[in-house]
């Protein structure tokens, strides 16, 4: 389980996160939503030591990790894989070679074994038939699925997705949604998804936290969000231009 407890984070004089607490439960698909610049990515960067809080604590599986040094962070990064918005695959390597890379580097597999394992991993994301293709030959949605396969190679318990469907066409976006849901349902992976995509949010989230002006505005299920009488929540989830959101 992941717990953020009274997290606070400023950059210079700009207070981005003032006091945010929430738990992410094992095996769930958990969304972090809110306006641009509200600090969604800032929250997940704290989990892998890319940022450190000014105040508050982050707990991961019973350990307080918020003040871990680089060496202590290493096992945390093995447990929490991050899938960035723009897939960071090497264009000059095939999809299988890209996925094999962490298997060779971190699991010590020989090149041939790593490639065989990479093909299995590509199967998990329905990309096995593209194993020998190069990333530039594929569409954005397919590249995203290969990046997800690579993130799964070290069997992380947690996968952090930063806007996984942004800039994808609607069909590719729904395929990525389906895959994120499958990871939880079949592998028991816990997914934390930063997203603006209302279709994703309402089709695959178990629970959602909405951040607003440095605080949690609402934490609940998609049904809780739909039923909320808070005008700010309603404006956001319906994507309305008019309303109380500044
Ligand atoms: N390393 C940093 N140094 C300075 N400011 C930062 C840093 N990281 C984030 N910020 C600032 O913190 C704020 C929140 O950034 P963050 O990337 O978390 O936004 P977000 O909610 O994910 O927005 P978006 O939906 O646009 O991606 C922004 O104003 C950003 O400029």
From TrEMBL:
It holds the Pfam family ABC_tran. It comes from Polyangium spumosum. Residues 2-238 form the ABC transporter domain. Keywords: ATP-binding, Nucleotide-binding, Transport. This is ATP-binding cassette domain-containing protein. One of its GO terms (molecular function) is ATP hydrolysis activity.
């Amino acid at each position: 389980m992941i717990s953020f407890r009274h997290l606070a984070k400023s950059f210079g004089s700009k207070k981005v996160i003032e006091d945010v607490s929430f738990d992410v439960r094992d095996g769930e698909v958990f969304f972090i939503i809110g306006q641009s610049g509200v600090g969604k990515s800032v929250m997940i960067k704290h989990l892998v030591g890319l940022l450190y809080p000014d105040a508050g604590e982050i707990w991961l599986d019973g350990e307080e990790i918020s003040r871990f040094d680089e060496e202590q962070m290493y096992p945390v990064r093995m447990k929490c894989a991050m899938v960035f918005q723009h897939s960071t695959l090497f264009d000059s390597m095939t999809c299988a070679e890209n996925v094999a890379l962490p298997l060779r580097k971190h699991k010590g597999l020989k090149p041939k074994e790593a490639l065989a394992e990479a093909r299995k991993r590509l199967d998990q994301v329905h990309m096995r038939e593209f194993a020998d293709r190069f990333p530039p030959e594929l569409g954005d949605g397919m590249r995203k699925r290969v990046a997800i396969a690579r993130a799964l190679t070290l069997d992380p318990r947690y996968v952090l997705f930063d806007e996984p469907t942004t800039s994808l066409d609607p069909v590719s976006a729904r395929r990525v949604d389906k895959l994120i849901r499958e990871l939880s349902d079949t592998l028991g992976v816990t997914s934390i998804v930063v997203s603006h995509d209302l279709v994703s949010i309402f089709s695959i989230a178990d629970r959602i936290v909405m951040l607003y002006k440095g605080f949690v505005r609402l934490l609940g299920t998609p049904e809780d969000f739909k039923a909320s009488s808070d005008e700010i929540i309603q404006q956001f989830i319906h994507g309305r231009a008019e309303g109380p959101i500044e």
